[in-house]
């Protein structure tokens, strides 16, 4: 051993000596062990996180979709309901260039990745450690998860990790094409458009199937920041973004360089305000919403976001005919028309109650009251057929004659008078219907009882809550009740269906995802009148069209029945009529409680009556609506009932005298009592004036030879009831003497039968109970 050297000690156990480890190596070993342990813990943590994260139910916003409303043909769009403007489309509807454009813009590894981007999660982790907001860079699948499943906009690592776990599961559950389709149906593109279909419409005015590569690239480019990349907001930024996307499409192989070079930056359409409710169509959409929500079929939220397909009963051609008739300058001129004068129309198929056309006003955005379904106005003489029905049901024949003289008075001295003071002598019910003779119909109403007349109106289709319908008074036959245009169309459609009442409806069917979820149609149909009664009622109303005041206006070259009506001061004027396959009601009315007779002097010399503008509108609409429709006959007259005890002459001779018209000056509807809740007044309802004193009478004229009516049940005492009295106005000047506007040629009948007059307070029996 060399001097000064130290022997190395042998290792224990006699083995060779072991060199010492450096500090650096020891640190490296420790870190390596930590990495192994951390990796094991990371795998375990990942496994736990994956297993414990469920795919949640879709968010409400993610599922919301636009509801589309169609006409009865199922293809012509009427409008839409939407909270979220989204119309999902199938995979086959999305062009390949659109799919490739969004991949190039948002996730070029879409078909290779498993739904997540590890690099983006890592960036989010680092950013979170630095205290910054999380970064973008999510995959298409992760964006889809955020939009459809979580709806979470929180900028946090926890959100990113949770969405990553959900994205992994979604990527396993759905194929890539379905994920891409769902993503394109849910993403927001700006301009109020959710989903690629509405985006195509909002930016280019086309359906998604029609998008070209240039347009697809623009849409894909706006996704990250629609407000920044919309060409309408920043054209330069939009074009830079578009250039990035089409460059990416070349990179991914979706386009060749030559194809890319041939592309030009697309032109977009100007964004328009949402006017889905504009014009007359707005009233149709409102009627659809009302029907579906009132019947409990859908909530408003379900209609706005359920992605439903609603097929209505509205016939597109008939609806166009209705709008054309209501807006025709000859039928309903605007010239000098007072601002508050409006018109409405409803047309119903009697066979099934389907509303084929509805005109509720010129523009829903200007007036959110549907004139066809919400405005109420006195019915005038269009109410008289309900008394005729009640009489026929009581066995009173069409041949029964009543006193048609102007001077005829009834119980307690009540005398309604006739238009123009005309006296017709003794008239049977057909003649009195043609001339709309007030005194005959009040006599008939006295025989059957006003309650029976009101009941017939309800069975035909008027709601029991119709203003002025109850309590029932003898004057109700003159049209004191105030129904809607829809109500009167419904009632006369029951006549057209020969006594079968079917509830009107505007929805034919509702589908969701190609499944019928609401069958639509009427709740039920019910026979409410005997067929023979209907045959005789229709016969009488046919004579109105053939020989009455509308004979020069109504001419459809097919069997037609109908009735005019005009209220006091022409605050409302009607024509309601039908052919076997279609019943239509037309009304014009004043919404400011001013009479339309103030319009007479300026409206081309025509008086405002049921046989003027309403009949002209009705004729123009029905002539177009029935064009090509099979010509059918009404049933033959049945001649039900007898004349015994009600007529001094049973012979069947019917006068051939030309009909005269009468203005029925209508009393306002009595104010309902506490036991009869008052319906919500419409703009057209008239206030009840204080009752006047009964006029002093001289020698009473001979009463009508009607049968002595049974005592009416004692009604609940109304607040200041009013009854009609003798007319105090000369009528509509269409008195057949050729005098004044609206007068016919000398010797011809007038143009209308406007209806009866405000009368004295009801007479009272000794105990104070009102009579009539």
From TrEMBL:
Family to which this protein belongs: In the N-terminal section; belongs to the glycosyltransferase 51 family.
Annotated Gene Ontology cellular component terms:
outer membrane-bounded periplasmic space
Q: What is this protein called?
A: Membrane peptidoglycan carboxypeptidase
Domain annotation Penicillin-binding protein transpeptidase: ranges: 343-592
Instruction: Return the SUPFAM superfamilies for the record.
Output: beta-lactamase/transpeptidase-like (SSF56601), Lysozyme-like (SSF53955)
Residues covered by region (Disordered): 638-772
Where composition is biased (Acidic residues), the residues are 650-660
Q: Tell me where in this chain the Glycosyl transferase family domain is found.
A: 78-249
Supply the InterPro entries for this chain.
Beta-lactam/transpept-like, Glyco_trans_51, Glycosyltr_51/Transpeptidase, Lysozyme-like_dom_sf, PBP_transglycosylase, PCN-bd_Tpept
Q: Which organism is it from?
A: Pseudokineococcus lusitanus
UniProt key word Cell wall biogenesis/degradation:
yes
Catalytic reaction equation(s)? Preferential cleavage: (Ac)2-L-Lys-D-Ala-|-D-Ala. Also transpeptidation of peptidyl-alanyl moieties that are N-acyl substituents of D-alanine; [GlcNAc-(1->4)-Mur2Ac(oyl-L-Ala-gamma-D-Glu-L-Lys-D-Ala-D-Ala)](n)-di-trans,octa-cis-undecaprenyl diphosphate + beta-D-GlcNAc-(1->4)-Mur2Ac(oyl-L-Ala-gamma-D-Glu-L-Lys-D-Ala-D-Ala)-di-trans,octa-cis-undecaprenyl diphosphate = [GlcNAc-(1->4)-Mur2Ac(oyl-L-Ala-gamma-D-Glu-L-Lys-D-Ala-D-Ala)](n+1)-di-trans,octa-cis-undecaprenyl diphosphate + di-trans,octa-cis-undecaprenyl diphosphate + H(+)
Matching Pfam families = Transgly (PF00912), Transpeptidase (PF00905)
Q: Which Gene3D superfamilies match?
A: Biosynthetic peptidoglycan transglycosylase-like, DD-peptidase/beta-lactamase superfamily
**Biased composition, class Low complexity, residue ranges:** 695-708, 756-772
Q: List this protein's GO terms for biological process.
A: cell wall organization; peptidoglycan biosynthetic process; proteolysis; regulation of cell shape
Which domain of life does the UniProt lineage start with?
Bacteria
Q: Identify the keywords attached in UniProt to this record, alphabetized.
A: Carboxypeptidase, Cell shape, Cell wall biogenesis/degradation, Glycosyltransferase, Hydrolase, Membrane, Multifunctional enzyme, Peptidoglycan synthesis, Protease, Transferase, Transmembrane, Transmembrane helix
Show the stretches that span the lipid bilayer. 27-51
What one GO molecular function would you report for this record?
peptidoglycan glycosyltransferase activity
Q: Compositionally biased, Basic and acidic residues: which spans?
A: 729-738
